[in-house]
Amino acid sequence: MGRHLWRLVPFARPYTKRILTGLATNAMARLFDLLPLVLVGQVVDLITPGANGLALAATEPHLFWVYGLAVLGGFLGLALCQSASDYALDSMAQMVRHDIRGRLYEHIQRLDVAFFEERQTGDIMSVVSSDVDTLENFFADVSTSIVRLVITFTGTYAVLFWLDWRLALLLLAPLPFAVAAVRFFAKRVQPRYRQARRAVAAINSIIENNLQGIGVIQAYTAEGPQAERVLAQSAEYRDAAIHAAAERARFLPIIYVLAGLSFGTLIALGGWLTFTDQGPSVGDFTSFILLAMRLVLPLFVFGMLINQIQRSEAAAQRIMELLDTEPAIRDRLDAKPLAGRPSCVEFRDVRFDYKGREQIINGVGFALGTGRLIGVVGPTGAGKSTLVKLLLRYYEPDSGQILVDGLPLTGLALESFRRYVGYVSQDPFLFFGPVLDNIRLGSPEASDEDVRRAAEVAGADEFIQGLPQGYQTLVGERGLKLSGGQRQRISLARAILRDPAILLLDEATASVDTRTEEIIQRNMDRLRAGRMILAVAHRLSTVRNADEILVLVDGLVVERGRHEELVRKGGVYAGLWSVQSGEGAPVVQATEQEA
């Protein structure tokens, strides 16, 4: 068993009683399984002319019924014990699979945003779904078969040594060669299965990504090239699986030859010893042959098990690699929980760059207190959304500090801080399910009336009431059954329902109509009391009433002030405003060139 499979042993420890029960009943099942074979030899001796048993059978014919009932008892014992063993070990396997999948998902949720930006969703789904299911087969079938083979092998050999130790040693002779063949096969086939698991993950990633963008693929008639991508990855999986099958095809004949050599020698030498009265009796030799045949089958089954073990090892490696991934953003050992609702957030000379890219935030500083709304505007790529991500602590600043009530954000327990944050992203995500559940995402205890009030503030109640089932209407995966503006309003209602101390709006009204924007703006003005609002906007009318507007260009705050002040300055903000308000494009053109 590979080292990655051994690392999964702790998941099975809580179910030690089930495992021991399964092993014990499996051992008893094997004894009951071997009992009829031994009894057959006794019956053969009873009916063999010239044997001592023949006279005994003549005087006590009821012995045949005794042996017959004993055989029946063996089968009944086998049925009961095997059923108990299978249930104990199968139920253990299901529980272990459940625990592994749960542990994986909990761990994935703690990983930072950068991890998901660098790894495809389909690949992660393949680990959580396909690889974990492969391990279910290992714990339920492979491990049970291994236990059964070990007990059968040792139990059978014990009986064989009892019947005739010389013939038993003869059967052991090819065993070292079989072990060497198994090790050679495992070494050759394992890389093939790893390659196959990677190919499966790549296929899942492409399909998952393409299904999300199927509309774009159809619009650009890209069906052919995308199908070729899937087929190329599928071909990689096919070739890896075929190579693994080829290795197995070369391995099995070796096992057959070794088994045939051992069994043929047993028939020849054992038959001669029995015939010359130098070996076991005819009945014992018959039992010996039947028991020896039970050893041949485990060898073939073991060859198939090695195949399955290698598959499981490849799956376990991917699972453990994911579990070993440490989040870049996590609580420090000395992290402290927030004592209560925060009242002040401050950026001090914050600088940040994404790995492998130029610096996106260059010395930004501002203070946001309770009851205030700060707007952040600027051209595309200026770093506006990055400020929100830094405050959510999706990333850590390269230098400078973000302070919450005077305490460094990095020194606060992450969950205790985010509990006070409401967030609306520029690409609002809705989950498959009712509208009601989507709004309640961060506030599961909220009443239906609370949900409706939050929807009213977000300008969403009217259109939700018009849906076929109102708040119980299913929105579909990613909310694709709704318009962009409707998704934004539901996402905004979700944030408002949480009653956050810090409300982060990243293009929260970019997709709504002018009338709805006016409603949201009026409600936002009322929401300022008791909370801090940081609003990123392309549409400048969204932040026109902000207490302060920061104008970002290339990660620098080039202008700051209220709307009227910035318009009078005639700078970058004034240029952007002139275009959006219809007062003339030349100003912004010059401004953009200047920026």
UniProtKB/TrEMBL annotation:
InterPro entries: AAA+_ATPase, ABC1_TM_dom, ABC1_TM_sf, ABC_transporter-like_ATP-bd, ABC_transporter-like_CS, P-loop_NTPase, Type_1_exporter. GO terms for cellular component: plasma membrane. Pfam families: ABC_membrane, ABC_tran. PROSITE patterns: ABC_TM1F (PS50929), ABC_TRANSPORTER_1 (PS00211), ABC_TRANSPORTER_2 (PS50893). The chain crosses the membrane at residues 20-44, 64-89, 146-163, 169-186, 251-273, 285-306. SMART domains: AAA (SM00382). It is found in: Cell membrane. It is a multi-pass membrane protein. Keywords: ATP-binding, Cell membrane, Membrane, Nucleotide-binding, Transmembrane, Transmembrane helix, Transport. The lineage of its organism: Bacteria, Pseudomonadati, Thermodesulfobacteriota, Desulfovibrionia, Desulfovibrionales. This is Xenobiotic-transporting ATPase. Residues 345-579 form the ABC transporter domain. Residues 20-311 form the ABC transmembrane type-1 domain. One of its GO terms (molecular function) is ABC-type oligopeptide transporter activity.
